[in-house]
Structure formats: structure tokens, C-alpha cells
Amino acid sequence: MKIIATLLVAGLAALSTVNYNNDANAANSTNNAANTSQVQDTKVLGKLYFVNLKEGEQPIMTALSLFGNRCGSEGFNHKPYATEGIRSVFELDEWIEFQPQANAESGIKVMVFKHQEDQGLYLKKPLNDKTPGYIQELDLNKDPDGDETSHWGSFYLHPEEVEPGYYDFVFTYQNKVFAIMFTQFFKPNEIYEKTDSELEKLMSQSL
């Protein structure tokens, strides 16, 4: 009887250990999944960092193409839809057109902020023109009479109102942030004569 009791106790202890390890692994997996939804420490220009997404959830905007009217060739400007390598260097006073791939035709907005080291600022509470670093915002709406090449909205940053430097494009849908993209703006005519490869090199840097 003592042998049987000892075996039962040992079995229960082993089962308890397995359950504990499984619970710990599940907790770690959950934590890892949560961490992947936040902006990473290395901030790459022209990459969509999707945030606030539940596991398996697709973002409302799945890819993006940006067109500028001053720098680079036609090929540099009309890049395919992507989540990385999106055009992200511009001159102040350059018109920027947004061409998203999205699962909604309205309700998406891009808000422009002077780059913030604390990216958690964008996730803590609803954003508005009082949020630190706020510059401007633009509603993105699909043109019902347009085609796949039609832009959903455009804007520029005026050189008399803002300075050259790094800026955050923060994308929201129905006032909830779902993606952040880092960009760099230069003085007018500063990068106008650079080749596509030189512009691509500028885009390859990290903040």
C-alpha cells in the first residue's frame, strides 16, 4: 500500500509539473503575441508597423503605395503596394499621394506627427490636435469613379511651418490606431537631384 501511495503521489506531482509548464508556455506565447503587436525598438523607414491587432486579425489597410511629385523617377514613385520599402523620403513642400489597399473605402485617416521616441504615446488614448508632436491629418477616401491608380488623398508639409527631420505617419480606422510608419523630410531641393539608388539608400536607414 505504501508503494502504491508513493507512486500516486509521484504521478500527481509529475502531472502538476506538466500542467504548470504548459500554463507557463501558454502565458509566454500570449506575451510574445502581444509584443509583436507593438512598435519594435528598431524603427525602419517606410515600414508599416501594425499595432492593436488581435491574433489572426487582418489590418483594415493591408498595403500602401506613396507617390511624390518631385524626387525620383517614375519607377521610384510608383512602387508596388507593400508593407515595407514604401517610399518614405520626401522634400518639404512636396505633394504626397496615398494609394492604399484596404478593406474599407472610407474611415481611414493618416495623422502626421513630429517623430516621437515614445511610440506608446500613440496607443494610450485617442489622438487629436493636442497630442504632442501633432502636425496635421488627412482622411483617406476611395474615389468611387477612380481606378486602382487613383489616390485616396494627398497633402504636403509647408517648409515655413515645419522643419526638416523625421516624422511619424500614424494610421487610424474609426479613430483607433492600427499602423505606424516612419518617414524623413528634407529641405526643398535638398534631395531633388539624387538618383533612385541614392534615394533608396536614404530609405534604408533606421531611426
Q: Structural class of the secondary structure composition?
A: alpha+beta
Radius of gyration, in angstroms, nearest whole number: 23 Å
What's the number of helices?
4
Low-pLDDT ranges: 1-37
Distance between the termini: 68 Å
SSE series: HEEHEEEHEEEEH
Q: Which outline best applies? A: globular
Largest sheet: 6 strands, mixed
In helices, the fraction of residues equals: 10-25%
Arithmetic mean pLDDT: 84
Fold blueprint:
Layout: H1 2-36, E1 49-50, E2 61-68, H2 74-77, E3 89-91, E4 96-102, E5 108-114, H3 121-124, E6 134-140, E7 153-155, E8 165-173, E9 176-186, H4 196-203
Parallel strand pairs: 3-9
Antiparallel strand pairs: 1-9, 2-4, 4-7, 5-6, 5-8, 8-9
Descriptors for this entry?
207 residues, 4 helices, three-stranded antiparallel sheet, single chain, 9 strands, 28% strand, alpha+beta
How is this structure best summarized?
This protein has 207 residues and is of the alpha+beta class. The chain is built from four helices and nine strands; from the N terminus they run H-E-E-H-E-E-E-H-E-E-E-E-H. Helices cover 25% and strands 28% of the residues.
Word description of this protein:
By secondary structure, the chain is of the alpha+beta class. It has helices at residues 2-36, 74-77, 121-124, 196-203; strands spanning 49-50, 61-68, 89-91, 96-102, 108-114, 134-140, 153-155, 165-173, 176-186. The strands form two sheets. Strands 1, 3, 5, 6, 8 and 9 form a six-stranded mixed β-sheet that branches. A three-stranded antiparallel β-sheet has the order 2-4-7, with no helix packed on it.
